[in-house]
């Protein structure tokens, strides 16, 4: 559906040039939810704007639904953009228009006759759950409702691709989840390809099939979300994964415990997918002569399955602990000993 | 009673002068509105980072606007005498004041239009582009509606200035309340005429301001 081939974007600034996107190649499949994560300034905003021609690459090809967005111009470009919906962090609604008129705007641009337009707007209001608020102005809506209008507007012309530019970054956690659920629902119902950029790992975890990690204009790592969670290769990816599964204070809390447990080992167990559902600890206690004490744990649901981390303290004979750890590892659970006082 | 207090005021002449002032102001405001919006749009669109970014064109329009905005109005009228004679055929009467009024006020209003357009959230323009809107669609359906309250309050301020411009134009023979106050009131030393003309000008200004504020608050949905 979308293919970027060696795409580079260089901005000419007063004090030299800035490479916002650096030789990026990427393939996004039809019907998937693809996330691009990075800190601000990583180039992800530029990257997503290349997909609908709001930015033109300095070199490389940007193929979206069979069109090279780097080459098309004028009428052809406007036509192509009607097939690519976009939603924004700050919603970008027209304050002078009501909900209904805002959603009708892209249909007016596409030249849809009035009667058909009204029908389509009704459908969309229903789809995004805004029935009853049709005639409100944006200033009378909450953030979540504004983003719903943004989504309805982006879907008006039945696009093949939906681009989300930090679509939930201005929303509170609860509203974020509701909007993410809506996006998944739309993705399933309409088979729409969704590309989103974000700096929140939570968003990636919750709805994405695949993820690309961006740093200084480059894609440093990409793959299935669960795979990237389980085997983060780059330091930046590890930082993002950590942000999600370990609250900030965990490391500190664990190191405090070292003093309290003069014997045994403290280990971090990382579960992915099916392994997260097993009664692993029970099995260990039954099969080996060790005491297991759970210090802290967290399991997160991703779009593709569960992902969890458990911090445990294990006490017993050194050999027995070793065998228990080997057993855990054999159950597809990653083991990392953080403190060893055997 | 009124005749005793204001012995020199001829109400028919006063009324005719009022109508002349209203006529000059009305036509000038309409023309300034259209011309100012066109100039303001050009200033905005050709500026850096906008749809028709063009440094040379922007510099030329900005220079034109700045020059005509800087010339004191009374001097502008004199400078425009040949142009007015060519266009209207005379230097006297209300119509003769119109070219100078519009050329004096439109650049002033154009700057206000430019400021109003710059206030529009860039994201909204970007969203319209992302939907595949053409530049004309963006002008008609985004730029003008989204800046409308500021455009209206700007034309209100400009209209008030235009009323005082018509008074100035009156002094050199364009008619209206300014003309009357100068010829009948000042030169013949009839202070009551000057006083009544002033009150009438004030009423016109208050009414313009009231209408402008009312319309602005009605259309502003922010």
Automatic annotation (TrEMBL), chain A:
Residues 2-241 form the ABC transporter domain. InterPro entries: AAA+_ATPase, ABC_transporter-like_ATP-bd, ABC_transporter-like_CS, ACT-like_dom_sf, MetN_ABC, MetN_ABC_transporter-like, NIL_domain, P-loop_NTPase. Keywords: Amino-acid transport, ATP-binding, Cell membrane, Membrane, Nucleotide-binding, Translocase, Transport. GO terms for molecular function: ATP binding. CDD domains: ABC_MetN_methionine_transporter. PANTHER family: AMINO ACID IMPORT ATP-BINDING PROTEIN, METHIONINE IMPORT ATP-BINDING PROTEIN METN 2. This is Methionine ABC transporter ATP-binding protein. It comes from Geobacillus jurassicus. The lineage of its organism: Bacteria, Bacillati, Bacillota, Bacilli, Bacillales.
From TrEMBL, chain B:
It holds the Pfam family BPD_transp_1. It is found in: Cell membrane. It is a multi-pass membrane protein. Its main location: membrane. The chain crosses the membrane at residues 22-45, 57-81, 87-110, 150-173, 193-215. Keywords: Cell membrane, Membrane, Transmembrane, Transmembrane helix, Transport. This is Methionine ABC transporter permease. The lineage of its organism: Bacteria, Bacillati, Bacillota, Bacilli, Bacillales.
